[in-house]
Design brief:
It is a single chain. By secondary structure, the chain is mostly helical. It is built from 20 helices and two strands. It has helices spanning 2-26, 42-54, 56-63, 66-69, 74-78, 117-120, 125-132, 139-146, 148-151, 157-168, 212-216, 218-221, 232-238, 240-248, 272-276, 317-328, 334-368, 381-402, 406-434, 455-458; strands spanning 174-175, 178-179. A two-stranded antiparallel ribbon has the order 1-2. Helix 13 (232-238) packs across helix 14, helix 17 (334-368) packs antiparallel against helix 18 (381-402) and helix 17 runs parallel beside helix 19 (406-434). The N and C termini lie far apart (100 Å).
Length: 461
């Protein structure tokens, strides 16, 4: 009996050992293979296999994306319909190259040269609609209405393309079967696409990962929102929000599902997206960055968003302020929130009445008396001084206050406003008192830009 029990126990142990070995073998690391088990058409497989070899960086980005995990392939975004304006003719040649994987005519599909918000709207209709009415999507129109550099032809077409239009967007066009190099490459937020849609989702969700995590980080916004005229990223980094972000960002859960990114759970202090776009409390997520704004601080004279002439917002500033207060209320008490807005409103009032209004009145008087010439902008010193008063120091003062960055509210803001204002008024009064015309720069460099407003935008209106 004893020997029989011993044998049974030994046999059991042997079975357990063999089972453990088998389980261990199953857990050995394997070479990762991308498998598309859903109904991927042969043409979609051809795209994947070709780009896997020819552009491995693009393939790797896509393979790590949520799109790939959901079975969304190149065709879902890039396939064009016959007759569309932006079909890449040059791409068709790849289907007759035998040295490429699956480079055969049987796999041919028309491919769009640029993926647009209209393409993205097939799966993200709400986001595309919200984006289409935002300041982001319409920023190319805004700068043509506001910016004397463009309207005065005071910079070159290439300076505009590599500078202004890199963020604001170009008017895309085709040339010889490919995107016109005069308008491409460009992923500007206000780009006008050939299908009529505005903007590029890849401004924030860069291709081909299209990451929600990336778009939530302030560094993404800082690609465009920086510098002397709109230093939001510098302002954010100086603020208490930015300080907490830098100290604790390694603990933030940036990969939380869309619409579920929660303060106090996924992040300790907000980023740009947390305040201006992400859902929080009773406020829903939005891709319209014009929402939640109660002052238009980029304008020469600070106005409510609905009164901003280049793009009047279809919003009620009181409703939008309450939304932002709700966002603030996830971390702050009511007295803190209310007193902050008192500070902001006071700064706006002082900028408008003490700095901008008297300078604007003096500027108008100079033009009326013919002491300044309107033929070109920036070819007279006072035009530059007035422009930078509102476009540089004035914006920094208002934005620094709005995002609680004291150095930008004061030293880079109102402190500089005072000196700019004094210099402007001193020269202006001298011209008026002596009835002297301002000196004009005869050789303003590279003032060669086309002053014709894009017909594709303004011709419709």
């Amino acid at each position: 009996m004893y020997r029989r029990v011993t044998f049974t126990l030994a046999a059991t142990l042997a079975v357990i050992a063999l089972t453990a070995l088998a389980a261990g073998a199953q857990n050995f690391p394997k070479v990762r293979e991308l498998r598309m088990d859903r109904a991927t058409p042969p043409q979609g497989t051809a795209c994947i296999e070709c780009h896997k070899q020819e552009t491995p960086g693009i393939f790797a980005d896509w393979a790590m994306s949520r799109h790939a995990a959901a079975g969304i392939t190149c065709l879902d975004c890039h396939q064009a319909q016959p007759g569309e304006q932006d079909i890449s003719v040059s791409h068709e040649k790849y289907y007759s190259m035998g040295n490429l994987p699956m480079g055969e005519k049987q796999y041919f599909v028309p491919v769009a040269s640029a993926v647009t918000p209209k393409d993205c709207s097939r799966c993200h209709p709400d986001e595309a609609k919200q984006y289409s009415v935002s300041k982001h999507a319409n920023t190319l129109e805004i700068i043509w209405k506001l910016d004397p550099w463009l309207n005065g032809g005071m910079n070159s077409d290439n300076e505009r393309k590599t500078g202004c239009f890199y963020c604001h967007g170009t008017v895309l066009s085709m040339k010889d079967g490919s995107l016109d190099p005069d308008t491409w490459p460009n992923v500007g937020v206000g780009r006008l696409n050939m299908d009529g849609s505005l903007g590029s989702c890849t401004s924030c969700h860069t291709r081909h990962r299209f990451s929600v995590m990336e778009a939530r980080k302030p560094e993404t916004c800082g690609q465009c929102h920086l510098g002397p005229d709109h230093p939001q990223i510098e302002i954010f980094n100086e603020s208490k929000h930015g300080d907490i972000y830098q100290a604790f960002k390694q603990e933030y859960n940036f990969d939380s599902a869309p619409g579920a990114w929660t303060p106090g759970v996924d992040y300790r202090a907000p980023t740009c997206a947390a305040c201006h776009m992400s859902g929080s409390g009773d406020v829903a997520t939005t891709h319209d960055v014009t929402e939640r704004i109660s002052w238009e601080t980029q304008a020469p004279l600070t106005v409510r968003p609905s009164e901003f002439k280049p793009l009047p917002a279809a919003t009620d500033w009181k409703v939008e302020r309450d939304k932002m207060k709700n966002i603030c209320g996830q971390c702050h008490g009511q007295s803190w929130i209310d007193d902050f807005y008192t500070q902001l409103d006071t700064s706006v009032k002082e900028y408008n009445e003490v700095y901008y209004a008297p300078a604007r009145k003096t500027m108008d008087e100079l033009y009326e008396k013919g002491l300044l010439d309107k033929t070109k902008y920036f070819d007279e010193h006072l035009e530059v001084e007035f422009y930078e008063l509102w476009h540089h120091e004035g914006r920094r003062a208002r934005m620094g206050t709005a995002m609680m960055a004291p150095d930008y509210a004061w030293w880079h803001g109102f402190y500089e406003c005072k000196h700019r204002y004094n210099r402007f008024m001193e020269e202006a009064r001298h011209l008026i008192e002596t009835n002297t015309k301002a000196y004009r720069y005869p050789d303003f460099p590279n003032a060669t830009g086309d002053t014709t407003r894009p017909a594709q935008i303004f011709g419709k209106k």
